[in-house]
Specification:
Helix content is about 40%, strand content about 15%. It has about 600 residues and is of the alpha/beta class. The strands form 6 sheets. Strands 11-14-10-15-16-9-19 form a 7-stranded parallel beta sheet. Strands 2-1-5-6 form a 4-stranded parallel beta sheet. The protein is globular.
């Protein structure tokens, strides 16, 4: 809305730059701008931080002595270079050291010996970069380190970019890391209009390098900036807002913070705190409560009359209205099993990189073929033309090629009855080929929507993969119960939210290797989870649960002590849960 208002007031769209963190947020932002400022959206630069860095590198490739058609190295290319550098260190460990060295050097430009730099790793980084450049490649770190180093060392060029983008907008400013912060500072001046939006109490990406300190020093960096506090909650019922505010208050980073519930159109009630015996009871309690709120969607509920038919009419909820959140992805298995037994459809959101997904390397290898079914196709790096072969068509052919290479046929889309061979009649080689074919087909299903969005632009498709596009199979339109990590839930909302594992050791999480927990960030993470709920919030805590392979006694999360008991509806208990399990195990009578 701020961008549309400025453009409507006469600011040329080319002067506007909007930066956010994820591909999903970027796409949604671009879609909203297109609706609010039709005719101007294609002239407004909307990018992720890494996408912005890539844009600058391609524009300045001559200054940086980079190939005009530079590409971002995918994982196989990076690993191949790393293996050539040393035979005595695992490529993944070496990559981490090189990345840290490159970022440290870029963060202290001009320093002869930047503090904290591993000099051996810095020397390896120089050799690694040289090997990439020989192949016309940069890596993901280069997308920030190179633009920062370039603009810092060339004030005239930095001033040219500041003149080009006079209106800069940054989403989720509380999550910027050191290099992202430095890039932004190089792109704005005293004459720029900078709009930074964020909530320091939702800074939950410290493990990725995010530093909420940059948000907190905004007033120091820009003393003349106006501040607008958004203090009304248009999402959650009053009871949820009050409980969440009490939970975050001991660790809030916003002095005098208030959040006033503005919704009076939804039912209000206390937050439910449900104590269960263990992980299995937790999963069953979630499934049973969803069944009840749906009005008895499962055959068992209907047959046992556990739910009056009137409740189904009163609630008017669908599967898509429910989300189950958890701290670690390993907690999802028990919940998915309990929901599956009742026939409830689910969907999970994963933050794994698409490029790392099984089956993707085989497809990408086939995608590099220069000819598609006898039709000449522009090579990667060539400008896309309006009549270019659609990426979706190229992808489909690459999938067929990858499937055929496993000597198992090239059927795509696969037949409905397609199943990998199993049992005594299948050899190990056959089973392995079948697994590869299944992985290729699964990867194709995830890649196809991205290919469709890229039209005929193969470079865009490859860039998205190299820039860390995530395996995001979560579809907000699907009528399925959402299973999400707390980190993955950020930015979403649901009428009913369950947070599993509100136990000391999970919230806050204690890493198995003994590293200290960041209690302040863990508290903020639970706050984020609680504020995803619109109408109903259920927190679950267990008496015991498996931790690193061993069953461990648990205590409720210490963060819950900050919430007034009057705001909580306490239910369950270990003894009651065990009794419920015994009752549930009895056979229901047929008549």
């Amino acid at each position: 809305h701020a961008i549309a208002r400025r453009v409507g007031a006469g600011v040329p769209p080319e002067r506007c730059l909007a930066v956010t963190f994820t591909r999903r947020a970027r796409d949604e932002l671009a879609t909203r701008i297109a609706a609010l400022a039709p005719g101007a959206a294609d002239r407004i630069t909307v990018a992720t931080f890494h996408g912005l860095g890539l844009l600058i590198l391609r524009e300045q490739c001559e200054r940086l002595r980079l190939d005009a058609g530079l590409k971002v190295a995918d994982e196989p290319a990076r690993l191949a270079v790393l293996r050539q550098l040393t035979a005595g260190e695992r490529p993944a460990a070496l990559a981490s050291r090189i990345s840290a060295a490159k970022r440290a050097v870029a963060a202290a430009p001009g320093a002869p010996s930047p503090p904290g730099v591993d000099h051996e790793a810095a020397a390896l980084a120089a050799r690694y970069d040289a090997a990439l450049r020989e192949r016309g490649l940069v890596d993901v770190d280069d997308l920030l380190t190179l633009p920062v180093t370039l603009l810092d060392g060339d004030p005239a060029l930095a001033d040219a970019y500041r003149s080009r983008w006079t209106d800069v907008y940054v989403d989720e400013y509380q999550d910027v890391d050191e290099l992202q912060y430095r890039l932004l500072r190089l792109l704005v001046s005293d004459g720029s209009r900078l709009c930074a939006i964020g909530d320091p109490d939702q800074a939950i990406y410290g493990f990725r390098g995010g530093d909420v300190g940059y948000f907190l020093r905004f007033r120091e960096d820009f003393p003349a900036a106006a501040e607008a506090r958004l203090s009304r909650s248009y999402r959650s019922a009053p009871g949820i807002v009050r409980a969440a505010m009490q939970l975050i208050r001991p660790g809030t980073l916003v002095p005098g913070r208030e959040l006033v519930p503005a919704r009076g159109d939804i039912p209000d009630g206390p937050v439910v705190l449900h104590a269960v015996a263990d992980e299995r009871d937790e999963a069953e309690a979630i499934a049973a409560e969803i069944d009840k709120m749906l009005g008895g969607a499962s055959f068992h509920a209907l047959d046992s009359r556990a739910v009056d038919a009137r409740e189904r009419t009163e609630h008017q909820l669908s599967f898509a209205d429910f989300a189950v959140l958890y701290r670690t992805s390993g907690q999802a298995a028990a919940v998915a099993e309990a929901l599956g037994k009742r026939g409830f459809p689910v969907q999970r959101r994963s933050h794994a990189r698409l490029a790392d997904m099984a089956g993707v390397p085989e497809i990408l290898a086939a995608l590099s073929a220069p000819v598609l079914e006898g039709v000449a196709v522009p090579a990667a790096g060539s400008p896309a033309s309006p009549d270019a072969v659609p990426v979706a068509e190229r992808l489909a052919e690459a999938v067929r090629t990858a499937l055929a290479s496993t000597t198992g046929g090239s059927s795509w889309p696969p037949p409905l009855a397609s199943r990998p061979p199993s049992g005594a009649g299948a050899s190990d080689a056959e089973r392995e080929r079948a697994q590869t074919r299944a992985a290729v087909r699964a990867a194709a299903e995830v890649l196809t929507p991205l290919a469709a969005r890229c039209g005929g632009d193969l470079d865009r498709f490859l860039d998205e993969l190299a820039l860390g596009a995530e395996v995001d199979t979560w579809d907000p339109r699907a009528d399925r119960i959402s299973l999400l990590t707390l980190h993955a839930s950020k930015g979403l909302e649901f009428p009913v939210v369950f947070i599993a594992g509100c136990d000391d050791g999970l919230l806050p999480l204690r890493p198995w290797h003994g590293a200290p927990a960041d209690y302040a960030e863990e508290r903020r993470l639970l706050f984020v989870g609680m504020t995803r709920a619109t109408t109903r919030l259920v927190l679950l805590t267990a008496g015991e649960r498996p931790v690193h392979g061993a069953v461990t006694k648990c205590a409720p999360s210490p963060f819950l002590a900050s919430v007034d008991p009057a705001l909580l509806d306490r239910r369950g208990g270990a003894a009651g849960a065990r009794a419920a399990r015994r009752d549930k195990a009895q056979q229901a009578r047929l008549f």
